[in-house]
Each structure stands twice: as C-alpha cells, then as structure tokens.
Amino acid sequence: FGWHRWVGDLGDTVGIDRFGMSAPAEQAAAALGLTVDVVVARATAVIQNVRESGAALHG
Predict the structure, then answer these.
(1) Domain range annotation of the chain
(2) What gap in Å lies between CA 38 and CA 51, rounded to an integer?
C-alpha cells in the first residue's frame, strides 16, 4: 500500500493485506499476524537491522 517509501529498506510494516475473514477478534488477529508477540518481534528485528547497518534511527 505504499508504506515502503516511509519505512525505507530497513523498515517493516504490520497490517492487514487481505480481507473477508470471519472469526472472533482474537482468532482473526492471530491468523493475520496481528499479535503483540509478532509486532514486538518484527519491531525488534527492525531495530537490530538498523543497528547492524550503521544507519540512524529517527523519530
């Protein structure tokens, strides 16, 4: 959806890229990878990648 321009090569986005799932909210979120554990793991990976690259974190 065009977020790459904002997050850059070392960034990542978390969101829904498909629609039509019918399930209780927690079940749907888990199936779509929208859990605290997944988001924390992906954010941690981005921070680690930035540190290893020598780039600066902004924001």
Answers:
(1) 4-53
(2) 20
Amino acid at 19: F
* pLDDT digits 0-9 by tens, 10-34: 899 988 888 888 999 999 999 988 9
Give the integer Cα–Cα distance in Å for 25 and 59: 31
Dist. CA 18–CA 25, nearest whole Å:
15
Tokens representing residue 31 in the block: 């199936």
| Amino acid residing at 18 | R
- Does the pTM of the predicted model rise above 0.70? yes
One DSSP character per residue, 28-40 reads HHHHTT-SHHHHH
